[in-house]
Amino acid sequence: MEYVTLRNGVIMPKLGFGVFQVSGDETARCVSDAVEVGYRHIDTAQSYMNESEVGQGIRDSGIDRSELFITTKVWIEHYGYVEARESVERSLRRLGLDYLDLVLLHQPFADVYGSWHALEELYKEGKVRAIGVSNFSPVRLADLAAFNEIAPMINQVETNPFHQQIAAHEHMVARHVQHEAWAPFGEGRSGMFTNPVLSQIAEDHGKSVAQVVLRWLMQRDVVALAKSTHKERMAENLDIFDFMLTDAEMQGIATLDTSASLFFDHDDPRTVDMFVQMVADRHGKA
């Protein structure tokens, strides 16, 4: 495993196991399997609706809590100082943990400032070891860092060979914010797993395209989250520390960048509408 050290000295595994879109029925087993094959960094979120199952998987794994790095994210319907703080306390109870290693604000909308003040307070109290954001553009990240007591330590954004976040990465490095990637495989969109450039590099190293993508992120000093419900694939995704991509291979992957999301644009007002509808739909099911 490789590690990064956050601005406050907290050490974070560079490769984590994500549970987005893992069903409640499978989450506990998947988390336990991931720990068994060697993952020590687990990423969940309030909006994934599987925090309780993640906690069960951690307990089922039998591993000591101190060996794990656990992240969750505050969902936008829980934004605002009071509600954000209370939501993190609920997350701790659902996970069955005394503290979290990292808590992120999941989206750059609604009452970001009030929510951030709640995370700052939880951090000072020691209930959270590090705090950060997700899906923040460079200007939103700069704003939050400039006008608050504690600047974000992490920014988790979509990052993959087709959306490489080059400019955003440079801004994060300049502000000592660790870049973390969600959807490193782009859910296979745009033919990522059959892309000729990635496939040739994979063949040359005797690795899979997924392993090449994760290795590429490691060499960019980007923390990555890999998801699979299959134990053998979990182990395969973790098996990326025995080879290096050459400069020419890194440059070849750089040519694949389209600078566009494979999912949705956070700077598009319709994205706000989408999340508003998502919150409304979930309340309708409650």
From TrEMBL:
CDD domains on file = AKR_AKR5F1
- Per the record, where is site Lowers pKa of active site Tyr? 73
Q: Which residues form the NADP-dependent oxidoreductase domain?
A: 15-255
Q: PROSITE patterns under this entry? A: ALDOKETO_REDUCTASE_1 (PS00798), ALDOKETO_REDUCTASE_2 (PS00062), ALDOKETO_REDUCTASE_3 (PS00063)
- Span of the signal peptide: none
Q: What class of enzyme is it?
A: oxidoreductase
**Where, by residue number, is the active site?**
48 (proton donor)
User: Which keywords describe this protein according to UniProt?
Assistant: NADP, Oxidoreductase
| Gene3D superfamilies the UniProt entry points to | NADP-dependent oxidoreductase domain
Listed SUPFAM superfamilies: NAD(P)-linked oxidoreductase
- One GO MF term: prostaglandin F synthase activity
Residues at which substrate binds: 106
Q: What is its EC number?
A: 1.1.1.188
**InterPro entries to which the protein is assigned, alphabetical:** AKR, Aldo/ket_reductase_CS, NAD(P)_OxRdtase_dom_sf, NADP_OxRdtase_dom
Pfam annotation, one family? Aldo_ket_red
Query: What family is this protein classified in?
Result: Belongs to the aldo/keto reductase family.
Question: What is the name attached to this protein's record?
Answer: 2,5-diketo-d-gluconic acid reductase
